[in-house]
Amino acid sequence: MITAQLADLIGDEQVSADAEVLAAHRFDRWCLKHWQDWLGEAMDAPACVVRPRNSADVQSVVRFAAENNVSIVPWGLGSGVCGGIEPRPDQILVDMKAMNQVLSIDEDNLLLTVQAGVNGLVAEEAVAELGLTIGHWPQSIGISSVGGWISTRASGQFSTAYGNIEDIVYAIEMVLPDGELVTLGKAPRAAAGPDLRHLALGAEGTHGVITSVTLSLRRQPEMRRFSAWYCADMALGFRAQREIVQQDWRPPVMRQYDASEVNRLFPDYMQDEQCLILLVHEGPTSRVAAEILAVESIMAGMGLNPADAAAAEGWMSHRNTVPEWRDLLEQGLIADTIEVSGTWSQIDAIYCDVIAALKTVHDCVNASAHSSHVYRSGINLYFTFACMPKDASVMGDRYLESWDRALTATAEAGGGIAHHHGSGRLRRDYLHHDLGENGLGLLRKIKQAIDPHAILNPGNLLPPIEAD
């Protein structure tokens, strides 16, 4: 019934209830769902999959859903890793894949406008032909959508110099839960009340369906150089990175790996169980040269020794190559990465406490970390854990326990439990640590005001309200 009505609205070819299509949209790249699928557990699929071609199609679908009290689950390219996608048989899944057009490139004002379903790498390649760059390089760039970047408040590997997605986005077009179309953002900077773009940034499809995005571009860098450094422990490396950014140097990439990760990821560069810092320097030639000299001086003054810059070049060439969840599961492993952040005063404790907490989980065979995003006031950490239980049926328990212990230890040390990737269903019960109970209540009020009938991605982002 729903399928036929939607087909009448936007065309037969844009609506599907084919079993294979529905099965392909049951979940995204959340590890826990892949484990369940690997075990052969049954999972719900949506009532139908709709592929709008433009904003008008999206409006028609959303208005139909609002009038008939049917829930909608927006889908970018399915690269989410925190459980933002969990459709039910009575819901419409809106797949944005067909909205994949580059709408305009403004070389004078350095602006790119794309439909929300555009693949991130396609968008980058479109501007690269003109000597420009978005400067946003998430590991998922080849499998993620620009709309998804907005929805999850994404962060890219070059963020230390170029910022996160909220620093790059210029304007957002979005269909609200009542079907109305809004454009949020008009000028390079505005004081016209609260910045309404942030109603879309990080909302994970709960406030509206993003239909197009305008991003602020950069010219491609004139020069790129690499450097690498050994440090005796993570604490010393953190202090060195703090000194670099607080002296106002901005290598776009600064990544620091603990000894466990060096041994696993960079075995050819392992030296006496030391940690490894990799840097990418790029920009105008004169600035790159000055930055490298300044970094060398800072590192030498703090007792860090140079490593082979080929380690950083190697990271650059294979940085987006990661194993598939099923490959790990076949090896008996359930694993994930957990990205958090903290101030410079907190980060030592966060690192030590989370590693210790992860190691208390039964069947843990790896607990390690690296940093990848640096700020004047603090830094992020990317923890990697892996568990190898003999009984595959308990993998999910080990997985959730690892997340719980890592996020709890982070919060107890004062850190933020979500740096990027969004919240989804995985982090939603921990949001109070970052927002506070009053802040969480405010987020609920905003959701209620925007979407009073809760038709957009119900169950995502906000934790369920406990019954009295």
What descriptors fit this protein?
22% strand, single chain, Alpha-Beta Plaits, 19 strands, eight-stranded antiparallel β-sheet, 468 residues, 4 domains, Uridine Diphospho-n-acetylenolpyruvylglucosamine Reductase, domain 3
Give the terminus-to-terminus CA distance.
37 Å
Shape: globular
Question: Which residues form runs of ≥5 with pLDDT under 50?
Answer: none
The pLDDT mean sits at 97
Q: Give the name of the CATH architecture of the largest domain.
A: 2-Layer Sandwich
* Number of separate structural domains: 4
Major β-sheet annotation: 8 strands, antiparallel
What's this, in brief?
With 468 residues, the chain is an alpha+beta fold. It contains 16 helices and 19 strands. The chain has helices spanning 2-10, 19-23, 31-39, 55-68, 120-128, 146-152, 159-162, 165-168, 234-246, 259-265, 285-301, 310-318, 325-330, 347-359, 395-412, 431-450, and strands spanning 15-16, 48-50, 72-75, 92-95, 102-106, 111-115, 132-133, 169-175, 181-184, 209-216, 218-219, 223-231, 253-257, 275-283, 305-307, 334-343, 364-371, 374-375, 378-387.
